[in-house]
Amino acid sequence: MNRILRYALALTHTVVGSVRIEGDAVIIGVRPWKRHGLRCPVCGRRCECYDRSPSPRSWRAMDLARSMCFLEYRTRRVVCPDHGVLVESVPWARHKARFTRDFEDWVACLAVRCTASAVTELARIEWHTVGGICERVYAELEAARRCDRFDGVRRIGIDETSYKKGHKYLTVVVDHNRGCLIWAHEGYGKAVLNLFLDELTREQRRGIEVVTADGARWIRSLVKRRCPNAKWVMDPFHVVQWMHDALDGVRREEWQVAKKAARDAMPKHDGPGRPRKGEETPPEARALKEVADAIKGVRFALVKNPENLTVAQRDKLDSLKKRAGSRLFRAWELKEDLRAVFKAGSAEEAARLLDAWLHDAAYCKIKPVVDVEKKVRRRKDDIVAAVELGIGNGRVEAINNKIKVTVKMGYGFRNTDNLVGLLMLRCSDCRPRLPGRPEMPARKKAA
């Protein structure tokens, strides 16, 4: 029986002393082998015994058929010369864990692939304990690496994403070459980004060649100071987004002007209620109202790519084009000219198109567009670098979407460290493995 239990629960360096049934659970009394006992849980050194716990401690193990299983052992405390008095390590569980190693690996695999309700129902544990499990599993996987996860990092993307109401943000750093998350921390700003840069060695900071981010000046100044060899690249998505916001501002201004003109063209009548006979809406007022409604309904057609427009949206743009001196259509043309910069085949062509766009935007006399022109002019070299290197922050935004899905699947996280542990398991290149199963080979990308 003892041999069967050791095999079923994958107990190594462990002696099974007793088995009993309490209610619906199977309780197994165990102890580590003599030469594997009294060891420091941090450094693994064999130490002297300090004392023994008065009552046995239990660890949740993998279920036996439909019954929950627990391992039971009276732990001892050891005196380590380097780490002080600590509870001895046991071969079946990680330090500070109340679950066995296989159980935690299994729960981590479930947490990466399932929702919170599925994990709690399958594992029969509370959701708030899953975060701590993920944190311990990731720490062990990271420690088992043959190299530092920051070694060989050449191209990184920096961004922040919200994970909770009330302007609660996470700062994330993504490796473009590996396409995975390499660092995440609660908060945003210079102090948080400095925490990431402090974890890098001097050689690792000097080895960073490209950094992509949005237009935040503080990110650029900090990276330029601490990563001297890094080339700053402005994310194309944020540049075009600036123009989208300006275009929508022009649309609102034009709509308000057209709406006021239609209201002023209406005849005045005394008293409330509907107009009396002979006071119907004149044709010119009706035409002005139709113009205002057309401007209001063209919002999505303006920001959409021309190749993705529907027939109705294309007709709206054509009608807007026929209006003489339309500020809104001129702003839309400048938006498309800015998009053409990022489609250039070379850095020289992009620089030429960008110079032409800056000239046209500066003299268009449309204030929201002129404001965007000033922002783009300050980042001209960074925008050309994005075209030259063919890189942006799109991969970082994809990781941000995974983070939001993770938060939604977990119905929120109280402990940010637990959230970061789960994110590193889900979005990094350290993936947990189901106990007792070989590691699955990486899928080959279709040609």
Protein described:
It is a single chain. This protein has 447 residues and is α/β, with parallel strands linked by helices. 47% of the residues lie in helices and 18% in strands. The chain has a five-stranded mixed beta sheet with strand order 10-9-8-11-12, sandwiched between helices. Strands 1-2-5-4 form a four-stranded mixed beta sheet. A hairpin with a 2-residue loop joins β1 and β2. The model is unreliable at 442-447 (pLDDT under 50).
Work out the strand percent.
Answer: 15-25%
Structural category is: alpha/beta
N-to-C order of helices and strands = HEEEEEEEHHHEEEHHEHEHHHHHHHHHH
Gyration radius from CA atoms, angstroms: 31 Å
DSSP, total strands: 12
| Overall outline | elongated
Question: Main β-sheet, in a few words?
Answer: 5 strands, mixed
Measured as a percent range, the helix fraction is: 40-55%
Mean pLDDT: 87
Question: Kindly, what is the distance between the CA atoms of the first and last residues, rounded to a whole number of angstroms?
Answer: 53 Å
Helix run count: 17
Q: Which oligomeric state applies?
A: single chain
Low-confidence stretches: 442-447
Widest sheet, order of strands:
10-9-8-11-12
